[in-house]
Sequence to fold (270 residues):
Amino acid sequence: MLSNLAQWWRVLCRPPKVRLAPPKAGEFVAIAVVLVAIVVSMFTFDAAAINWARGLPQWFDDLFEQITDFGLSGWFLFPFGFVLLFLAAITARALTQRTRAVLAALTVRFGFLFLAIAIPGLFVTLVKGLIGRARPYVGGHDDPFAYMPFTWQPEYASMPSGHSVTAASVAIAIGAIWPRTRGILWIYALIIMFSRVVVIAHHPSDVIAGALVGTVGAELVRRWFAARGLLFSPIDLHAFAGPSLNQVVVAVSESLFRRKPVEKPQIPPS
Fold:
């Protein structure tokens, strides 16, 4: 397991194989627009949104208290990390080349999913303490401009929203590999972001900032993989085709039980 993990790390950290085209100008414009939206929200929407949330019925608040927990990164990082450890434990040189190729494809996919969610989350955990923005409930009333930088206290960790970072990075990462899931993933992300305001844990500007960090972070991880010939095309960043479910089942079965797939007998020519 340790040998496989070390080898995977070396592959991930190897120099880029190709030079990717720089991001399009429209992407920088979109980021600038979101940054402006964050500032505008701080001056116009934040206080009003929290006042609205305080007036919601108790049953509505209780419902979203349950929903918002599904924005915790552990729902994704724990299973993805377990799969990676499992793959590291069963991958061996004694396996057939086809099986090792299937396991390698799975490793790259789950490695990308894990890092695309974990790295933005780790980044925002550090940034929260540096910014030190007070949560809406601090002091018994909302003050969108209450800051206490470098405090490293949960009450002053409002900007950006960690749940929003996770939700956006999940939508980007999983949607990059399976594009057909993007619609439902972004519905999930928007519900999680909305829930953070409903439960008075974040201002709308915190949520917008979190969505920006999660999106940009996951896309940067995607570009890192593509530049090294892993999972994504360096031309258009589309995901390469992965193994079928049947191929995965056969590969895992061979790895666990060391049973090689049965090959059809060759009929000699008459």
In short: The chain has a mean pLDDT of 93. The chain has one domain: 25-255. The domain at 25-255 is CATH 1.20.144 (Vanadium-containing Chloroperoxidase; domain 1).
